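Appendix B. Raw example, untouched.
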Amino acid sequence: MLIGAHVRDDDPLAAAREVGAGVVQFFLSDPQDWKKPQRHPQADEFGPAGVAVYIHSPYVLNVASLNNRIRIPSRKTVAQHAAGAAEVGARGLVVHGGHVRKGEDPAEGIANWRKLFERQAEQGGFGVPLLIENTAGGENAMARDLDMLARLWDAVAEFGPGFCLDTCHAYAAGWELDGVVDRVLAVTGRIDLVHLNNSRDEFGSQRDRHANVVGGDGTIDPAQLAEIAKAAGAPVIVETPAEGQVADIEFLQGLG
């Protein structure tokens, strides 16, 4: 099992050594900003160092949005970050599923996802896999509920997107974690990455507040998270508080 963490973006290789990670995830720019990312100074070093990389896109993106002032820059920014991810040899770019506003038709949000892939396909693709991540809340979210995720997958599966399963998001959204891997695979046919996060809040809270896998204030049994990690058979990233990441990674490494 390839195990690692979301780490600071200024020196991810040093951060990987500090926490004992074989894989890292980081941002290429401020996650609350639309700025085009610059080439990362360690872009050529991850391969020789034997560290696998995933890039997380900015939180401001919402490619499902019906608002042109959000959707159009979101498409542009996804393409820019995918290019930046390719430069560092990343295995994928994680993108949240996004949402439409209250009163808007979710089918239009799904159609906007399809348009993203169609338009980029005309330009030769993204250069790295896009990994669509499930989200914790939002009544009109594209990837909060499995039935909506199934509708989204029907629309975009032909373009070969990957899927990132976030356990905190799933738990907060009200997904029963027992058997969750099988239920996700029945929809997407694949899990490419696991964000193995505990939750500070209770089941179904729709609150996205991560806790450490072990030794913190999480409300999910660590043994249940361990079973998900093993069942998924995909690389695991902990997006947990930094002070507990070493213990989280050591716990997961102990699973064999």
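End of appendix B.
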